[in-house]
Amino acid sequence: MLADLRDAIRQLRKSPGFTATAIITLAFGIGATTAIFTLVHQVMLKSLPVTKPDELWRIGDKDRCCNWGGYNQGDDADFSLFSWEAYRVFREHTPEFTDLAALQAGNAPLGVRRAGSQAQVDTRNGEYVSGNFFRTFGVQPWIGRLMTDEDDREGAPSVAVMSYRIWKEKYGSDPSVVGASYQINGNSFTVIGVAAPGFFGAKLAGWGMPDFWLPLTSELLIDGATSRLKRPNGNFLDLIGRVRPGVNPKSLEAKLKVELHDWLASHVPDMEPGERQLWQQQTLHLVPGDAGVTSMRDQYKDGLKLLLVAAGCVLLVACGNLANLMLARGLKDRQQTSVRVALGASRRRLVRKALVESLLLAVIGGILGIGVAYAGTRLILYLAFQIGGPNNFVPINPTPSWPVLLFTLAMSLLTGVIFGIVPAWMTSHADPIEALRGANRSVGGNRSWAQRSLVIGQVAMSMVLLSAAALLGRSLRNLQHQNFGFETESRYIAWINPMLTNYKPEQLEPMFRKIDDRLMQIPGVRMVAPALYAPMTGDSWNDGIRIAGRPEPGAKEDTGASWSRVMPGFFDTIGAKMVMGRPITEDDTATTRKIAVINEAFAKKFFKDKNPIGEHFGPDKIKYATTFEIVGVTKNIRYLTYGYKEPVRPMFWLPEAQTVQYDDTAYLAGETWSHYLYNIVIWAPGNPPGIEERVRKALGEIDPNLVLYGVDPYTQVVSADFQQENMIATLTTLFGVLGLLLAAVGLYGVMAYSVEQRTGEIGIRMALGADRSRVVRMVLRGAFLQVGIGLALGLPAAIGAGKLMKDQLFGVKPWDPVMLIFATVLLALAAVLASVIPARRAAGVEPMVALRNE
Hints:
This protein is of the alpha+beta class. It contains 25 helices and 24 strands.
């Protein structure tokens, strides 16, 4: 084996062109596959970096971010979010858990500043967790101590645990952080410790990863009147516990269902009529919690699977290319092989020698592929997470880990065998007598069937890749250029958070009027409109609707509608069109009747063909059905960042100046919270330069403590909503182009070798009167025959692939003829370019020279 290895190194050094081509091809093929596997491993296969993750189980199998009110959850009646009260019931009555922890399903925006400092607040992400959170996961402190149950009780001193990442990046690993007092949303907290490196929490998401962990009971202090902790139907917690050894998960799940029903039964008097009809159908599921709350897995799993298949196709095309190179090289050296056979070398010995050479190439290509994978993973992270929320942090490390390195080694060895075994076997079967008489003599080129088969396979695989890339690219274009119902050009979104400055609800509307007036003074700004959340910004507020004069709807009837709160001028600022009535104006004040503007979908769903102007509706309860009077209808606006294949959801808008005094604490809390507007839409035609600096300065003049995260062009905000689709389309296009290039190189190699093998035949044909154009046609005919067969096989495969990824497509059919024709034409052009040079070389053969060589 060592002798074979030394000989392989010597042979590769003697053929630098062949070696470089092989290694580069392998590096790209293996690197692309490894890059995707790096993401697959960290997002879909990796467990939480905690003690014995296999003992963790999660109550609930859905990712419901971030708040769910009521005693029913969804059409499937599957509980996955829980209230604090429900959590305590499970914890107290389920000894099968050694520990059961609760964590906030969303995140808590925090304004953090060291006590006594006059610096601007540092905006961070927080997460409310139970006192046994760190104990449940077996996490140890890096410095200081971690939270306990004593810290998570009402009246206890306010404490916080800092993440290692923030401690290192923001505070320079300063040990004095522990024990120091910090102002968090205007309240005094003591940082008691720093979590261990690598621990990012119990969920993996593309946004809102925690910088600080706070006790659940501190939610009462920070959120005040909008707190959900004491509301039995305020579901905002994910539950993960460590199950005792020997406990049967199925039996535990059955017990938890009984506990859920018992708890729900105790709240039947508090339920709405529809909830009373459905509470007995509510259920839950116990699922493995070793990966925590898998938000990112649920979001990206389909896309990553698609990319892994596409990368595998590229690797197969690369293997076909290298098999062709190895086969051509082996057939070219058949005379040398014949001598070896004549001297007594066995076929097994020859196959082993060829395999050692191919495996050496594969291992070198794999080593270089690790670098390609590292760069590719960083590219994927950039494409998938270009824009995030404030302090966006994705806990994915692009550096290959041991599992990834082992995967790369396995792929390298497998690739070496795949592209090396057939050429090795074929060249080892050389006939010594025939080879020594004239190994290169050929009449019809029939011996190149293996090479041609590989080219046909490459063309078919490239057809699948190119058609997939075309379909996904067309789908992405359709997504980004659909009619959203509002304008993004020359518009900006300023991201603010008035909750971090401790404004009272009655102070908000005057402050937003000041913001309107001051921002309008910026040169180039035409209109300004703050909103609870603007279209396509990622938020979603929803309520059930009750119409005045109508009975309580059926329990399973969908009465949901989204809503937002806005300042006057909002619809003009975003370029939305009114179709009936009027928009929200300055005349809608705190003392006037409570009004609302609805969209066409709302009017169609709840009023059919009836004129909705003047009708009344309200949220969730019949007693609130007369709360709002409809004064206007706007054209449908695509507001939510999901469900693009579905019709626009019913929606309504309320004025910031008006407040409803509900007699229900939960509704009153939501009403209060909704007045804290987080987006400011700015219409500035001509896109004046330095808009963010001017907005920051203007807001600083109104209140230096008002938190401004940033100002983004609206086009960029909308584009960011399609980051996953953009990532998949971009990478699939790259894979398609790479597959096309490899297929073209493979075809060129086969045609060039075929011309070389048939030099004598071509010389005879030309000596007998064949002209150059006929020779060119003969060579091109052979090339197009292979490409034609490959396209014929690839076309149904491409249609099948389109059907498999139909969930990734928008506004384009899996068998879209334009995209299939595009892929076919592109492959045909590549075939022409790959065949022209060998054809011209064949036409340039001098008959006498060819015959003399024979």
